[in-house]
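With this grant's support, we have settled on a layout for protein records. One resulting record is reproduced below.
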Amino acid sequence: MISTVKHPYNWAVSIPCWFAFNALLYWKKSVLFLVLTHGFTNLFLYIWVILSTVRCGNPNDWMFW
């Protein structure tokens, strides 16, 4: 639930991510796997925001970052 405190304006995204990351931790039993998954998630989000801002000129996509 720390993610909902860390991202207070994106609860609709952080709560499902929290459930997914907890399920991954329970399944793999590896914090390293969880850290890598979170890193890849952030990388994908960063690429998505950059490409959509460049292509569409929509700065509102930064709200997820």
In short: Residues 53 and 60 are 8 Å apart (CA to CA). The helical segments are 2-6, 11-28, 31-56. The first helix runs from residue 2 to 6. The chain has one domain: 2-64.
